[in-house]
């Protein structure tokens, strides 16, 4: 194994716990309507982690969502408390898309881009320099 730092997180009730090694490959804000619906918040902060670097304990349930392209996005959540934990997007093989708000320390990485700004709350200031009206990444 590597000596990269391990970052841990989990759901609201504690049934699901996870960890990943090293920094996320990408941290982004997603303003898509599906993230808004799932999170109950105006946007979702997501981090891409290599599948091989991600480990999880506890059980998740999966809602099979679909992005605009029609590609499947498996949204994993805790069946006890409902916290969204991660998304597995068919369009992003090999990557686990972690819901960064569930990290024990959620403030370590600012977002480098914003996706689906077309559906961003109009009152929200820009959070990243790169802002895309839509995205080919759906998570
Ligand atoms: Zn839970
Ligand atoms: Zn989204």
From TrEMBL:
It comes from the Bacteria. SUPFAM superfamilies: Mss4-like. InterPro entries: CENP-V/GFA, Mss4-like_sf. It holds the Pfam family GFA. GO terms for molecular function: carbon-sulfur lyase activity; metal ion binding. Residues 7-110 form the CENP-V/GFA domain. Keywords: Lyase, Metal-binding, Zinc. PANTHER family: CENP-V_GFA DOMAIN-CONTAINING PROTEIN-RELATED, GFA DOMAIN-CONTAINING PROTEIN. Belongs to the Gfa family. This is CENP-V/GFA domain-containing protein. The lineage of its organism: Bacteria, Pseudomonadati, Pseudomonadota, Alphaproteobacteria, Sphingomonadales.
């Amino acid at each position: 194994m590597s000596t990269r730092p391990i970052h841990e997180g989990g759901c609201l009730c504690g049934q699901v716990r996870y960890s990943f090694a090293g920094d996320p490959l990408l941290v982004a804000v997603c303003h898509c309507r599906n993230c808004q619906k799932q999170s109950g918040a105006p946007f979702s902060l997501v981090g891409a982690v290599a599948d091989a670097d991600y480990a999880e304990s506890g059980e998740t349930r999966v809602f099979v969502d679909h992005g605009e392209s029609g590609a499947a996005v498996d949204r994993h959540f805790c069946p006890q408390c409902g916290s969204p934990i991660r998304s597995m997007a068919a369009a992003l093989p090999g990557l686990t898309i972690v819901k960064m708000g569930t990290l024990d320390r959620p403030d370590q990485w600012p977002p480098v881009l914003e996706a689906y700004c077309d559906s961003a709350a109009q009152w929200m200031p820009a959070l990243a320099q790169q802002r895309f009206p839509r995205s080919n990444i759906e998570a």
